[in-house]
């Protein structure tokens, strides 16, 4: 399990102190946004994001970085230190941003930090001594829980994903004839074509079937349908038309447990199908 934690800790070093405490419990690489460019994010299993809260907001550079990363499914966690403000996992803006980026957020950690920002400087700062030993112990317990959650999820889903034919094709473990690719969709030629042009279109997220489409992953379905006309034009079948088919479950004829669509064209199809 490899963890990369990106931390912007600009005033008192509170958040970096917490991240280092976590790293003593569970090994991880810690860097800032600028340094993150030296790392290939795809080499890491879990991404951590942390900063102080400034007027209730995460560091701007960290937020921009989180917005810019790709939508490849990956586990993540968030940490913050704060003088006054605090979030729950449900209301945290960075957590919600990462979820929209298809990240499985394994947890949110926050604690008080010594705050000498502007007005608090007059009285020597707010939350003197924080993060303290109790805060750091909580941080170590938190990251242990994150690691445990990741390993448990890996055991539950790992076998299915690791054995998934289409996941292996997306990751380049199995060769394919690529027709189209973007951050959310991969399309390749079917090895047993049922038409002159036959392409399989899959989401890059491991969604087992149409029955597992949710509010969180429905964006992949939208991305697939946006890609369909572009692929059809690329194949030269947009003029006379084409067929798009999704097989769901045993009775639907689904043979690979990864949601996929067949785009077929180049000949006239009969109806009803099957």
UniProtKB/TrEMBL annotation:
Upper lineage is: Bacteria, Bacillati, Bacillota, Clostridia, Candidatus Ornithomonoglobus
Annotated HIT domain ranges read 165-274
Q: What SUPFAM superfamilies does this protein map onto? A: Flavoproteins, HIT-like
CDD domains associated with the record = PKCI_related
Q: Where is this motif: Histidine triad motif?
A: 258-262
Record-linked Pfam families: Flavodoxin_3, HIT
| Protein name per UniProt | HIT domain-containing protein
Q: Which PANTHER family match?
A: HISTIDINE TRIAD HIT PROTEIN (PTHR23089)
Q: One GO molecular function term?
A: catalytic activity
Instruction: Enumerate the active-site residues.
Output: 260 (tele-amp-histidine intermediate)
């Amino acid at each position: 399990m490899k963890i990369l934690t990106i931390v912007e800790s600009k005033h008192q070093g509170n958040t970096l102190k917490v991240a280092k405490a976590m790293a003593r419990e569970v090994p991880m690489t810690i860097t800032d946004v600028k340094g993150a460019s030296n790392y290939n994010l795809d080499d890491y299993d879990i991404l951590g994001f942390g900063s102080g809260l400034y007027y209730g907001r995460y560091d701007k550079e960290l937020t921009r970085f989180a917005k810019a990363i790709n939508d490849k499914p990956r586990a993540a966690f968030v940490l913050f230190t704060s003088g006054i403000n605090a979030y729950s996992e449900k209301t945290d803006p960075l957590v919600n941003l990462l979820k929209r980026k298809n990240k499985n957020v394994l947890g949110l950690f926050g604690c008080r930090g010594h705050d000498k920002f502007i007005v608090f400087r007059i009285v020597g700062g707010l939350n003197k001594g924080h993060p303290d030993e109790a805060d750091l112990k909580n941080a170590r317990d938190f990251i242990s829980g994150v690691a445990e959650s990741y390993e448990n999820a890996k055991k539950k889903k790992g076998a299915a994903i690791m054995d998934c034919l289409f996941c292996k094709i997306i990751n380049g473990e199995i060769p394919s004839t690529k027709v189209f690719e973007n951050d959310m969709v991969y399309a390749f030629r079917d090895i047993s074509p049922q038409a002159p042009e036959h392409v399989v279109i899959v989401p890059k997220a491991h969604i087992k079937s149409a029955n597992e489409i949710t509010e969180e992953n429905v964006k992949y379905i939208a991305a697939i349908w946006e890609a369909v006309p572009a692929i059809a034009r690329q194949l030269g079948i947009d003029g006379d038309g084409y067929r798009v088919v999704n097989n769901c479950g045993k009775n639907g004829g689904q043979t690979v447990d990864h949601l996929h669509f067949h785009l077929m064209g180049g000949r006239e199809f009969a109806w009803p199908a099957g």
